Description:
Two copies of one chain form a homodimer.
Chain A: H1 10-22, H2 25-37, E1 41-42, H3 43-49, H4 54-67, E2 70-75, E3 78-83, H5 85-91
Antiparallel strand pairs in A: 1-3, 2-3
The structure holds a DNA duplex.
Keywords (chains A, B): DNA-binding, Transcription, Transcription regulation
Protein name (chains A, B): Transcriptional regulator
Organism (chains A, B): Schleiferilactobacillus perolens DSM 12744
Amino acid sequence: MDIKQSSATETEEFRRRIFFALSEPGRYTIVRMLYHVGHEMGCSELNRHVEIDKSTMSYHLRTLREIGMVTTRTQGREKFVRLNTERINAVLPGILASL
Amino acid sequence: MDIKQSSATETEEFRRRIFFALSEPGRYTIVRMLYHVGHEMGCSELNRHVEIDKSTMSYHLRTLREIGMVTTRTQGREKFVRLNTERINAVLPGILASL
DNA sequence: TTTATAGTTGGAAATCTTTCAAACAATTAT
DNA sequence: ATAATTGTTTGAAAGATTTCCAACTATAAA
Lengths: 99, 99
């Protein structure tokens, strides 16, 4: 059973990116909060619960969005973040529940 | 429900280190290989299956050992690596099976 | 219109990560 | 004793990541 590093499936790539995201305390906290709250949250609400500079928060949320772990919705001047639970569970079943 | 970043439990810390380990392709491949093989492997045997420079391999194995994801045993000039399945499953149940 | 609120972006600084070559130690084989 | 095999370590180079300030856009409120 040989494993070639060159050929990584999309799923594998997504998994690794999830691992990368969760290896950073700030993002770990954000994801954990979103999961436990169980519904979308406004960025500023998130920011009120998680102590991170607002631009750092923005940076982390962009990372999570680029990876595909969250989606966002803008309403007026507020932005709501929603955890993409289904997609994450599809490649790493149960991981969110164990955070 | 507030989450303070300052206080991370040991378990949470271990989880994050596992995520860190698995976010790197080389280590991901090593861990996956060890899991699927299902028993300890000699470093050179590992190196024959996973294409990584030997010193890079050594570096990654040291990281995995420091995190506590693997243990090693030396016999003669060979070194055997064993995945600490129980400990990993204790904090992230089923994660190895989904790699 | 002016001001406040929500969030993004650019850029710089500090730090961390990964990789490899070269030299090394330890063990086994010739 | 010499040579080959196993694996570690050091150190340097290149690159990635995180953080924060300051300036910015856009919407809503006064």
